[in-house]
Specification:
With 225 residues, this protein is α+β, with helices and mostly antiparallel strands. Helices cover 47% and strands 21% of the residues. It is built from 6 helices and 7 strands; from the N terminus they run ααβαββαββααββ. The strands form 2 sheets. It has a 5-stranded mixed beta sheet with strand order 2-4-5-7-6, covered by helices on one side. Strand 6 and strand 7 form a beta hairpin. Helix 1 packs antiparallel against helix 2 and helix 3 runs parallel beside helix 4.
């Protein structure tokens, strides 16, 4: 029953994105035929609202599939290096630095590579948004007791206790264009793997996320969950 609900919600999100894409395309044609319309002060807000709806539907689909896992063997060093490398050009443009360090001899992690990638992409994107020019972001990779421990920390603006207590709640956001689903999806993915996530933050000092993942899936998990 649960699986059918997940499938139907994902299908609905997909079906709603199709007409939304058509609306966006139609607006682009209108702007091409009548360029003066783009001078209207409401035009940028209209495009922003459409982009927000598209992002929301996409994240709703991700939220509903976040606990369905497809296990495979992941090369830890290559996997995380590739993710960090994808953000290096953005960091340089923003005059920031991303550092990656490995303090583990473990080579492989069994997990859903697509969803675990989503976890760390989300955390690094959040760190970039929370930092200013000259700030740093660190990803430290360690292993303890058959678990991979990955810390993503930054020297950014940090969060107060009130904000910190709500960051994993769905639809709670402090970003003007945020959906409030990103960290909810992150936590769901980690929980589905039998892992845990911890967060520490102080205003003006920075934020640290600690992701703990089992190196191997629980015995009850199979290749597809």
């Amino acid at each position: 029953m649960h699986e059918s609900k997940v499938l139907s919600l994902s299908t609905i999100s997909h079906e709603l994105r199709n007409p939304l894409t058509l609306i966006h395309s139609t607006l682009q044609l209108i702007a091409r035929h009548y360029p003066e319309v783009t001078n209207d002060p409401l035009w940028p807000q209209l495009l922003s609202d459409i982009n927000y709806m598209s992002q929301l539907l996409s994240e709703l689909s991700s939220l509903n599939s976040s606990q369905t896992l497809h296990y495979s063997q992941i090369d830890i060093r290559q996997f995380l290096t590739n993710i960090v490398s994808a953000f290096q050009s953005t960091a340089r443009l923003q005059t920031k630095e991303i550092r990656l360090s490995f303090e583990t001899d473990e080579q492989f992690l069994m997990g859903d590579s697509v969803k675990i990638r989503e976890v760390f992409i989300n955390l690094i994107k959040n760190a970039l948004e929370a930092t200013r020019e000259g700030d740093q972001i660190w990803m430290e990779v360690k292993s303890r007791w058959n678990r991979l421990v990955v810390t993503v920390s930054d020297s950014g603006s940090g969060m107060d206790a009130c904000r910190l207590s709500t960051i994993f709640e769905p639809f709670v956001t402090y970003k003007p264009d945020g959906t409030g689903l990103g960290l909810t999806i992150v936590k769901n993915i980690i929980n589905a793997h039998g892992g845990a996530i911890q967060v520490y933050s102080k205003p003006g000092i920075g934020t640290k996320f600690i992701v703990i993942l089992p190196l191997r899936p629980p015995e009850k998990a199979s290749g597809t969950k």
